[in-house]
Write a structure and sequence with these properties.
The N and C termini lie far apart (about 65 Å). A two-stranded antiparallel ribbon has the order 1-2. The longest helix has about 35 residues, at about 195-230. A hairpin with a 4-residue loop joins β3 and β4. The chain contains 11 helices and 4 strands, in the order ββααααααββααααα. The protein has helices at about 30-60, 65-95, 100-105, 110-140, 140-150, 150-170, 195-230, 240-275, 280-305, 305-315, 330-350; strands spanning about 1-5, 25, 180, 185-190. Helices cover about 70% and strands about 5% of the residues. It is mainly alpha-helical. The chain has a single domain (about 30-315), classed as Up-down Bundle (Rhopdopsin 7-helix transmembrane proteins), CATH 1.20.1070.
Length: about 350
């Protein structure tokens, strides 16, 4: 794919200064089908997940579960809107093959799409980190979290994530980075370059995403270890941990999906700008399509990995017991042997007195 030679003159808008349409390339049916099929699949998946989440929120009586469902709702809404905005533009290009220079001579539309790509790309990663923080305090400091955190504060946290991601997306409009037309002419993204402010913004986008994934991994690891200790400890039959385990499984899957889908693109951007080598368009498109899977797979984590669904898949499981871990005694005994020494240390330090009392 080679761009037509367009000399850079004073009246050339910034977004067309690197790649200027029309482009000489051979459009493939695969590109149009990929955009249409995966965009539609993602929209339907997120719509189903939102309906399921709404019903679950209305039926739940658990405070911690309500907090988690609010974060999941924010994630689903973000993924849905991201696919709706970006897919509409890309599909329209593949159908009509419009010329961006004629349609958007002042780069307003290109800047909007570039901001959308950055905003809807960072939001799922930042929401995943926020969910990991919420679960960390919910499992390790339940008293501090449940007594001082109303539901509206969780909504404020989701809005704060959106505000931070929006602020980062607006940076190129202030001169830190810039949005440019990207090959093959169907989308706009920030300029991945090792020069000046473009380098700074490329690193901001890449490092913020990688930092969110790292925070999610660290906090989720601590939460899982704490949850295993509680489930395998002496109070395992007195405290219900069904919802905690269910939420933790969903959060870990969301983290794994985000890591697999986004790490290649984030690392590719960082390596490109730090090494100073030219941008490989084919690699960028490949890793970008990889990242698109995150918005498609996220909703299916909650749709499929719920107790009600798993109960239908295997109705012989006794879901009425005090903990899901009790359904697998051999696994519980194995984990207990590994955590027995740490539990003794915890008991000797009096930390078990800080655990919340048994729920009636």
């Amino acid at each position: 794919m080679n761009a037509s030679a367009v000399p850079l003159v004073n009246n050339t808008p910034l977004c067309y200064s690197v790649n200027s349409p029309p482009f000489k390339y051979h459009p493939t049916i695969a590109s149009a089908y990929f955009s249409s099929i995966f965009g539609t699949l993602g929209l339907i998946s997120n719509l189903i997940a939102f309906i399921v989440l709404l019903k679950s929120f209305q039926q739940t009586h658990s405070r911690s579960r309500s907090f988690f469902l609010i974060f999941l709702g924010g994630l689903v809404v973000t993924d849905f809107m991201g696919l709706l905005v970006t897919s509409s533009i890309v599909i329209s290009f593949h159908v009509t093959h419009f010329n961006w220079r004629y349609l958007d001579p002042n780069c307003h539309f290109c800047n909007f799409m570039g901001m959308s790509m950055v905003f809807y790309g960072l939001c799922p990663l930042m929401l995943g980190a926020a969910m990991a923080v919420e679960r960390f305090f919910g499992i390790n400091l339940p008293f501090a979290r449940t007594t001082s955190m109303p539901k509206r504060r969780t909504v404020y946290m989701v809005l704060m994530v959106w505000l931070i991601a929006g602020g980062i997306a607006l940076l190129p409009l202030t001169g830190i980075g810039s949005y440019h037309m990207q090959m093959p002419g169907s989308w706009c993204f920030f300029n991945i370059s090792s020069e000046g402010n473009d380098l700074a913004f490329s690193l901001v986008f890449s490092l913020v995403g990688l930092m969110c994934i790292t925070v999610s991994f660290l906090l989720n690891t601590v939460s899982v270890v704490t949850l295993i200790r509680v489930c395998c400890g002496q109070d395992r039959t007195q405290r219900r941990r069904d919802y905690e385990i269910e939420m933790m499984v969903q959060l870990i899957l969301i983290m794994v999906i985000a890591s697999i889908c986004w790490c290649p693109l984030l690392i590719f951007i960082a390596q490109t700008v730090l090494s100073g080598r030219s941008l490989q368009i084919k690699s960028l498109l490949l890793w970008l399509r990889f990242a698109t899977w995150n918005q498609i797979l996220d909703p299916w984590v909650y749709i499929l990995f719920r107790r009600s669904v798993l109960k239908r898949v295997n109705p012989r499981l006794d879901w009425s017991r005090g903990s899901i871990m009790s359904l697998y005694p051999s696994f519980t005994d194995t984990v207990r042997r590994f955590t027995q020494s740490s539990l003794r240390i915890t008991l000797s330090q009096g930390e078990t007195e800080e655990m919340p009392p048994p729920t009636p």
